[in-house]
Design goal:
Length: 146
């Protein structure tokens, strides 16, 4: 089994402190703060990183499902929107919306939508986030003429 790591360091109190987050692979390192998470300050935040992970995982799962069904996608582009809201017990991630577009030759829209729904339910990140409502918008785009 593959093991992946990431590291976060936070310095200071919640509102004035700052932190850094880094992927174990070394492919990303960024700053985060109260302002980047709850306001519109510069830097990343945990929800944005969850969104990136979910969009990447879903796109790969959809490509795998399509290949298994005999289709070769030219491109799959997914945007994940992650909502964090304050409730009675504090903050919670309340919803994730996956918005995907796939360019897949020789597939009908119903089959594409079925494959996208299956990917939403079966990608490992979706499974890890099962306690959160996950909505899906999927659109099939026409392959580009060569």
């Amino acid at each position: 089994m593959a093991e992946r790591t990431a590291k976060a360091v936070w310095q200071g109190n919640l509102k004035e402190g700052t932190g850094t987050v880094a992927l174990g692979s070394g492919s990303f390192q960024g700053r985060y703060s109260f302002q980047s998470r709850f306001e519109s300050g510069p830097g990343t935040n945990p929800e944005e990183l969850i969104g990136a992970a979910h969009a990447a995982c879903f796109s790969m799962a959809l490509a795998g499902n399509l290949a298994q069904a005999g289709y070769t996608p030219e491109a799959i582009e997914t945007t994940a929107r992650v909502w964090i809201e304050k409730g009675g017990d504090g903050f919670a991630i309340t919803r994730i919306e996956l918005d995907t577009q796939g360019t897949v030759p020789d597939i009908d829209e119903d089959t594409f939508l079925e494959q996208a729904e299956t990917a939403k339910e079966t990608c490992p990140v979706s499974k890890a986030l099962a306690a959160t409502k996950i909505d899906l918008k999927a659109k099939l785009t026409a392959p580009q003429a060569v």
